[in-house]
Amino acid sequence: MTTPILSVRNAVKRYGQVHALDHVDLDVADGEFLTLLGPSGSGKTTLLSAIAGFIRPDEGSIHLRDREITAAPPEQRDFGMVFQGYALFPTMTVRDNVAFPLKVRRRPAAEIAARVTECLALVQMEQYADRMPQQLSGGQQQRVALARALSFKPQVLLLDEPLSALDKKLRADLQWELKALHDQLGVTFIYVTHDQDEALSMSDRIVILRDGKIQQQGAPGELYNRPRTAFVADFLGKSNFIDVSVSSEADGVFHCQAKGAQFEVDAKGASASQVSRVALRPERLRLAEPGQEFLPATVKQVSYLGERCQVIVTHDQLGELLVSCPTWKTGINPRAGLPVSIGWDRDACVPLTND
Amino acid sequence: MFRNSDKMRYWALILPALAIMVTFYIFPVLGIWEIAFTEPTTGVGNFVQMAESSAVRTSFILTFRVAAITTLGCLILGYVVAYAISNFAGKLTPLMLALVILPFWVSVLIRSFSWIVLLGRSGLVNDTLRDTGLIDSPLRLMHNEFGVLVAMIHVMLPFAILPMLTNMRGISDAYVKAARGLGASEWTAFRQVYFPQTVPGVMSGALLVFVLSLGFYVTPALLGGGRVLMISEYITYQIQEFLNWGLGSALSVALLIATALVLLIAARFVNLRSALLERK
Question: How close is the nearest chain A Cα to the Cα of B200, in Å?
Answer without folding.
Answer: 11
